[in-house]
């Protein structure tokens, strides 16, 4: 009885297995896809740049003396003309008072000598004094007048030294670390006190290949936009404008130096920082783009996998024009609306059936679990 039951069961299993292989075919490969799109894409030149202050001033004392007070904290933003340091003003006040006293004395002497010369001018006309005596009085008055002018210059110099004892900011910007402390003797034009960097606005210096100079000059009249970020994938960028193109190409590197200016109101850019730069020359309004992760490189060149209407993948050679952000601009091989595989290509061959596991959005791969 057992043998008779087992034989039909074995036949059923065999028939069922043979029928599954015929109906199933090759296993489907799970993939994520995106559609090729036609959109406006800027033409960009990529470079690496260095942030630099628009102005940088090393604050130095103009007089020698003992530093008595610092009127700011390291790293503060300061305004033009703001008081930064105080050098002991007492020696300069004394020098000013002495110069003023000398001036007052010489003014009195010069006034008296002028009156004497005027009196002798009347007397010489009446022959009461000789012409030589008059000329001596006239020379004495002129000499004292010149002395008064010299004294006035000495007073002005003493006033200037006293004013210089109060050190002010010569530009608006952000201060660095203090290079001296109160109590130190500082020397005129020798000891830097602090460095001020102007960071609003701020500059980014970068170099591009010399062969790009022609295109830059062609579109420069359009006030070219420059975007910078910490990385080329950075979604948060600072936007500025091209302000400077150097007047020669560096023969050593074959590059030309450019500078862009940024408002930097949020202090995103910092002097000395390295950034990735995108110089936008113009916008291609009808560019065909695919997510960059869809483009593969093989022995025959660049290609993508297209998903056909019958649910299979086909390798399609493409001509890449350039990249922009997370997209690749394709000049040949793909049309707007084509479905391209963005994830799972490594398991694909032409003609392989695929199973759609998700759709990439905005050139990015979908989140896990989608």
How are the elements arranged and paired?
Blueprint: H1 2-24, E1 29-35, E2 37-59, E3 65-70, E4 77-78, E5 83-87, H2 90-125, H3 131-164, E6 166-168, E7 173-175, E8 185-186, E9 194-209, H4 213-219, E10 225-229, E11 238-249, E12 255-262, E13 274-291, E14 296-298, E15 301-307, E16 313-317, E17 319-324, E18 327-332, E19 339-343, E20 354-359
Parallel strand pairs: 1-20
Antiparallel strand pairs: 1-19, 2-9, 2-13, 3-5, 3-8, 4-7, 5-6, 7-9, 9-12, 10-11, 10-13, 11-12, 13-18, 14-15, 15-16, 17-18
Helix pairs in contact: 2-3
Primary descriptors:
OB fold (Dihydrolipoamide Acetyltransferase, E2P), disordered C terminus, four-stranded antiparallel sheet, 370 residues, alpha+beta
Cα Rg: 42 Å
Overall pLDDT, averaged? Answer: 87
The low-confidence parts are: 1-22, 363-370
Which structural class is indicated by helix and strand composition? Answer: alpha+beta
- How many angstroms separate the termini? 54 Å
Count of DSSP E strands? 20
- Give the strand order of the largest sheet, numbering strands 1, 2, ... along the chain: 2-9-12-11-10-13
CATH topology assignment of the domain at 44-54 and 199-285: Elongation Factor Tu (Ef-tu), domain 3
The level-1 CATH class of the domain at 44-54 and 199-285: Mainly Beta
Shape: elongated
Largest sheet: 6 strands, antiparallel, barrel
Q: Which second-level CATH architecture of the domain at 44-54 and 199-285 applies?
A: Beta Barrel
Oligomer: single chain
Query: How much strand content do the residues show?
Result: 35-45%
Q: Work out the helicity level.
A: 25-40%
CATH-level-4 superfamily name of the domain at 44-54 and 199-285: Efflux pump adaptor protein, beta barrel domain
Helix tally equals 4
SSE ordering:
HEEEEEHHEEEEHEEEEEEEEEEE
């Amino acid at each position: 009885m057992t043998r008779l039951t087992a034989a039909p069961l074995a036949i059923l299993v065999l028939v069922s297995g043979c029928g599954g292989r015929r109906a199933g075919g090759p296993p489907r490969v799970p993939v994520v896809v995106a559609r090729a799109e036609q959109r406006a894409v800027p033409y960009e030149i990529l470079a690496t740049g260095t942030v630099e202050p628009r102005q940088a001033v090393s604050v130095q004392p103009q007089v020698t003396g003992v530093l008595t007070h610092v009127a700011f904290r390291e790293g503060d933003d300061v305004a033009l003309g703001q008081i930064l340091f105080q050098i002991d003003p007492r020696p300069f006040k004394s020098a000013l008072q002495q110069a003023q006293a000398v001036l007052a004395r010489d003014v009195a002497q010069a006034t008296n000598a002028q009156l004497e010369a005027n009196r002798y001018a009347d007397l010489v006309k009446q022959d009461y004094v000789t012409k030589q005596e008059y000329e001596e009085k006239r020379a004495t008055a002129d000499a004292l007048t010149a002395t008064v002018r010299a004294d006035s210059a000495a007073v002005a110099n003493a006033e200037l030294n006293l004013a210089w004892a109060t050190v002010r900011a010569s530009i608006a910007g952000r201060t660095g670390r203090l290079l001296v402390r109160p109590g130190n003797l500082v020397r005129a034009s020798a000891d830097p006190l602090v460095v001020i960097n102007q960071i609003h606005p701020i500059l980014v210096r970068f170099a591009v290949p010399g062969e790009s100079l022609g295109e830059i000059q062609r579109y420069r009249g359009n006030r070219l936009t420059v975007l910078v970020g910490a990385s080329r994938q950075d979604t948060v960028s600072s936007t500025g404008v091209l302000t400077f193109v150097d007047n020669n190409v560096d023969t050593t590197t074959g590059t030309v130096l450019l500078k862009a200016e940024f408002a930097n109101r949020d202090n995103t850019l910092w002097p000395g920082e390295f950034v990735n730069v995108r110089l936008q020359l113009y916008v291609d309004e009808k560019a065909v783009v695919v997510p960059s992760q869809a483009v593969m490189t093989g022995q025959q060149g660049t290609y993508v996998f297209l998903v056909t209407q019958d649910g299979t993948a086909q390798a399609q050679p493409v001509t890449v024009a350039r990249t922009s952000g997370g997209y690749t601009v394709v000049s040949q091989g793909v049309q707007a609306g084509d479905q391209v595989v963005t994830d799972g290509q490594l398991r694909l061959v032409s003609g392989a059936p695929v199973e759609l596991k998700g759709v990439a959005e905005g050139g990015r791969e979908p989140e896990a679990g989608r």
